[in-house]
Amino acid sequence: MTRKAVIAGYCRTPFTFAHKGALAGMRPDDLGAHVIRALIDRTGVPPAEIEDVIWGCAFPEGEQGLNIGRIVGMLAGLPETVAGATINRWCGSSIQAVQMAAGMIATNAGEAFICGGTECMSRVPMMGFNQLPNPAWDAQMVADYINVGLTAERVAAMYGLSREDQDRFGHWSQSKAVAARDGGRLAPEIVPVPVGDTVVDTDGCIRATTLEKLATLKPAFKADGTVTAASSSPMTDGATAVLVCTEDFAARHGLTVLAAVKSFAVSGCAPGVMGLGPIEATRKALARAGLTIADIDLVEMNEAFAAQAEACRRDLGIAEDRLNVDGGAIALGHPLGATGTRLVGKAATLLAREGKTHALATQCIGGGMGIAMILEAA
Fold first, then answer.
1. How far apart are CA 110 and CA 103, in angstroms?
2. Which residues pair with 53 in a beta bridge?
3. If you write DSSP's letter for every residue of 162-222 in order, what string do you get?
4. Whose CA is closest to 86, among 70, 105, 62, 103?
C-alpha cells in the first residue's frame, strides 16, 4: 500500500522588497535556518527524526550556493544525521521539493521531511552572477529564456489583456492582501525575524493603492508595453518551510495535519510564453486526481505577472472568488525558490481554515514550464 504524504506544518518569514526592504541585509542561509528552527519549534517534531531537508533555490550560487539545503539544516541546529539537498526548478523549486518528499514517503524512503526554500534577491541577482547561455542559441531564444518580463507582454497580447485588465488584477491582489493583513489572517504563518535592534514581523511589499495611481506608472519592459511594476511580482527576500510526513508519523507525534498531497504534475511550454505553464500542468494534475476544476475549492497560483495569472485563470476556468483569497505574489512578493512552499503551505492552511476539500497550488516557471500540486483535506 502506498503511503500518503501529509502537510503537518507551515511557516514563512515576512517577505520584503529586495535591496530596499527590511531583510536586505540578511544572508539567505541564515534566513533559511531561521524558518527551519521556527517550524521545529511550532510543530515540536523531534529534529533527529527528520530524514532530509529538501530546499528550493532558483539561483543557488554565492551565499545561496554550496548546497544551501545542507547548510540551512546545519545552521538551524539539526543533528548532523539529517541530510540536505538543494532543488532547482527555478520558481517551481520548492513545490518540487514537496513532491520529492512525497515520492520518498511513497517508496518507504523516510517518514518526515522539511521542505522549503530561500531566495534573497538582494544578495544573489535574478539569473545569477554570470550568465553563459549556450552559444548555439540565437538572440531570440536567449531573450525568451531569460527576459521573463517580455514573455508577460507576449501573453497579454495573446489573450487580449489590456493595460487596464492588468492594473485591475494587480489592484485586486493588493486589496486582498491588505484585507488579509489587517484582518490578522497572515500573521499566523509569519515567523518574526530579528534584524539588529528591530524585529521584522510583517510583509513589506503589500501596498494599499488605487487604480488611478496604478494608471500613472510607466511600462516596465517595453516603451509601448502594458506590463508595469504594479502588475508584476516584485523582487523579494524571504524563506518558507513546510513539514511533510506520513500520516502515522503525524499521529505518533500529535501533529495537526493540514492537508494531504493528492496529485502532482509538471509540464513544458515555449519559453517565450512561460507564464502559461500552469495550464497544462494543472490539467494533468486534475486528471491524475480524478477531479475537474469545478472540484477545486481554493487555488493558490503564483502571480509572476498579472497577464500570465489572469490568462491561466481564464483558460482553466478558475472562479475569481477561489483564487489567491489572501492576495498573491504581486502584493506579497515572490522570493523565487521560496514561493512554492508558500503556495503549498498556504493552500493547506486554507483548506483547514475554510473547511474546504480540495486545493490547487500552481506556478509558471521561467524557461517555459509549469508545476501543479493538488491537496485534499485531512
1. 10
2. 84, 114
3. -HHHHHHHHHHHHHHHHHHHHTTSSGGGB--EEETTEEE-S-SS-----HHHHTTPPPSS-
4. 70
Hey, which residues does 239 pair with through a beta bridge?
118
Burial class of 150 by CB neighbour count within 10 A (0 to 12, 13 to 18, 19+): middle
Q: Render each residue's pLDDT in the chain as its tens digit; 378 residues.
A: 578 999 999 999 999 999 999 999 999 999 999 999 999 999 999 999 999 999 999 999 999 999 999 999 999 999 999 999 999 999 999 999 999 999 999 999 999 999 999 999 999 999 999 999 999 999 999 999 999 999 999 999 999 999 999 999 999 999 999 999 999 999 999 999 999 999 999 999 999 999 999 999 999 999 999 999 999 999 999 999 999 999 999 999 999 999 999 999 999 999 999 999 999 999 999 999 999 999 999 999 999 999 999 999 999 999 999 999 999 999 999 999 999 999 999 999 999 999 999 999 999 999 999 999 999 998
Cβ neighbours around 246 below 10 Å, total: 20
DSSP class of 217: P
Angle formed by the axes of helices 148-158 and 139-146, nearest 10°: 90
Q: Is 334 known to be catalytic?
A: yes
205 is annotated as an active-site residue: no
Distance of CA 67 to CAs 28, 121, 219, Å? 12, 17, 37
Rounded CA Rg of the chain:
19
- How many Å apart are CA 14 and CA 21, to the nearest integer? 10
Contact between residue 57 and residue 93 where contact means Cβ atoms under 8 Å apart = yes
Catalytic residue among 91, 205, 269, 312: 91
| Nearest CA among 26, 37, 10 for reference residue 236 | 26
Q: Which position among 120, 245, 269, 334 bears the catalytic label? A: 334
State the cell numbers at 185. Answer: 489572517
- CA proximity to 286, closest of 354, 345, 339, 359: 359
DSSP 337-378: HHHHHHHHHHHHHHHHHHT-SEEEEEEEETTTEEEEEEEEE-
* Rounded Cα distance, 312 and 299, in Å: 12
Place of cell 511533510: 244
Spatial distance between the Cα atoms of 117 and 58, rounded to a whole number of angstroms = 9
**364 is a catalytic site residue:** yes
